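User: I'm curious whether this sequence folds into something compact or stays loose and floppy. Could you predict its structure so I can see for myself?
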Amino acid sequence: MVVALLLVVPGLLVQGYDLIGEPYGQDSIDPLTPVGLVVVCLSLAAAVPVVILATRLAQALDGGWVASVVGRIRWRWLLVCVVLSVVALGAALAVAMVLPESGGAAVDGGVNEMTDRTVAFALIVLLLIPLQAAGEEYAFRGYLTQAVGGVVPGRVGTAVAVGVPALLFALAHGVQDPPVFIDRFAFGLVAGALVIVTGGLEAGIAMHVLNNWAFFGLSLLFGDITEALAPVAGTWWLLPGTLVQSLTYLGLVAWIARRRRLETSAPVGVLEAKRPRV
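Assistant: Here's the prediction. I'll summarize afterward.
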């Protein structure tokens, strides 16, 4: 059901843009246009309502239980995670500054010209990237993690519930250089571990949003946003910064979560669905 809905929603969005006179096609992606970026972001953001609906229909559970063990997004905790993700990103940037090359967005040393198109892209990135990132987290770390974890019990199930969505997340980005694939796989592993450590999607969403804001922002200022949409090339020097950021963030989040005595499991019986487990 989730897959079917995710295939239908992008088509509906494309038809909607055609109706308002902003046709969407291959030339909206390469080179990327503001309309193209809007369609991409909203298509991925659609995973949030799709997952909530699928959870309600297929498992007879309130969709809020996909977000966290308290049945909703914990907004204060999400804001704490945003601050922690800034600290972790700062550590990664510090490491990247001393490496020969870090891969990622192409930066030629000059600042791009600020145009109306640039401003449009910036507003879209600011407003829609959080929705896009949340959609991916709901799909991969929300629905898939619970679906896989519900099939395989015990500690093995926990490991599989983290590893399988991480692998699918990396594969979903298409053909890519090995360092880029490993970078995305590592991100998926950390985001999955954060779900286990914190009992929710908030930490993963915060890290995902900040990473994408930083990447698209740097591409708008110094590089090519078309290449930033789906980067496939990178060097092994990409990985040290990723490891520093991921491990720093995971450590900080785990530490603060313990200090705040954050709930990491739902009350007994709450997630016993009338239909197959989530």
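Summary: The two ends are 13 Å apart (CA to CA). Residues 1-7 have pLDDT under 50 and may be disordered.
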